[in-house]
Amino acid sequence: MQPFRRSYRRLYIPGGSYFFTLVLEDRRQDTLTRHFTALRQALLYEKQRHPFTLLAWVVLPDHLHMLWRLPAGDDDYSNRIRRFKANFSRQLTSNETISRSRQNKAERSIWQRRFWEHLLRDDQDLRRHIDYVHYNPIKHGHAERAGDWQHSSFRYFVEHGVYPADWAGPAQ
């Protein structure tokens, strides 16, 4: 029997909505929040060249979660993710930590090689993942309230009446 990793098959659905998790190779780093502007620029660059709708996102020091909807007839999220990761990595200075394993193979990427993807099945699944994204800074101890974390789409959702400003905050 092959290991799970080799037999894993991604679902490619044209016009599908997906939840993604991308993780740094070195989970002890804060590269993503420290270089948030460059990360955002890399995402916008990819979005302009190969359109998709960014439904929600959160960026934590060592990983990020995004929800995307692809255009009708388009199922190519893997190449978008690959280019996004590469564009961000190229913008960084050479003093970012590269794992010994990657150094031995002459690889420069700061990212884990793979990423997690989940096809969002329906509106309830979408809503559950949007909540998960916005709760993530609290879960990882980076914020007391969802609104305290600046590297997410939470404030956009508050401005558009989806969440109250005190959603997922400490009990009053």
Overall description:
It is a single chain. With 172 residues, the chain is an alpha+beta fold. Helix content is 38%, strand content 15%. It is built from 7 helices and 4 strands; from the N terminus they run H-E-H-H-E-E-H-H-E-H-H. A hairpin with a 3-residue loop joins strand 2 and strand 3. It is globular, with a radius of gyration of 17 Å. One of its GO terms (biological process) is DNA transposition. Residues 13-136 form the Transposase IS200-like domain.
Overview in brief:
With 172 residues, the chain is of the alpha+beta class. 38% of the residues lie in helices and 15% in strands. It has one domain (16-159): Alpha-Beta Plaits, CATH 3.30.70.
Helix percentage: 25-40%
The CATH H-level homologous superfamily? Transposase IS200-like
Domain count: 1
The proportion of strand residues reads 5-15%
* Cα radius of gyration in angstroms: 17 Å
List how many beta strands DSSP finds. Answer: 4
CATH architecture: 2-Layer Sandwich
* Overall 3D form: globular
* Lateral arrangement of strands in the main beta sheet: 2-3-1-4
Quick one: biggest sheet?
4 strands, antiparallel
Q: Give the averaged pLDDT, no decimals.
A: 90
Ranges with pLDDT <50 over ≥5 residues? none
CATH topology: Alpha-Beta Plaits
What is the distance, rounded to the nearest whole angstrom, between the alpha carbons of the first and last residues? 53 Å
CATH top level class name? Alpha Beta
What's the helix count? 7
Helix/sheet category: alpha+beta
Q: From N to C, what is the helix and strand string? A: HEHHEEHHEHH
Domain Transposase IS200-like: 13-136
GO molecular function, one term: sequence-specific DNA binding
Protein name: Transposase
Organism: Pseudomonas taeanensis MS-3
